[in-house]
Amino acid sequence: MHKIITTSTNSIEGAKIEKYIDVISTNVVVGTNFFSDFGASLTDLFGGLSDTYQSKLQKIYKIGIDQLKTKATNLGANAIVGLKIDFDEISGKGKSMFMISTFGTAVKVCYKTFKVSKP
Question: How far is CA 49 from CA 29, 42, 69, in A?
């Protein structure tokens, strides 16, 4: 995969946006299993952090960003600006799943060159 600068800001320091290509998004859904649900319910009951859920959220966060970068690359972009991430839980019928939605604008940027003057 090509190197894609990804930022939640609307600009990249030291770069000029030459072209706004398209708004891109991804959705990643990961199911939880009985054992992680059980462990999380104990954490909820007794307090503390749920390492299991944190690990799952970090995993799908990375997958979502990677998929967004792949989409940007396929469109000819070399950066994503305005990145937004939304986490959600989907549950029903005794099952629960995590969903992450990522959004951003694929852009083509040109990095400014600075001349260094010699004394």
Answer: 22, 10, 30
Q: Number of folded domains in the chain?
A: 1
pLDDT digits (tens, 9 = 90+) for 54-90: 777 788 889 999 999 999 999 999 999 999 999 888 7
Joined tokens for residue 67: 């998929």
Q: What gap in Å lies between CA 23 and CA 17, rounded to an integer?
A: 14
Is 119 within a domain?
Answer: no
- Considering the entire predicted model, what is its pTM? 0.73
Q: Write the CATH number for 30.
A: 3.30.110.70
Chain centre to alpha carbon of residue 16:
23
DSSP 116: P
Q: Which tokens sit at 54? A: 């944190």
Query: Could you tell me which residues are beta bridge partners of residue 102?
Result: 26, 85
In a domain, 101, yes or no: yes
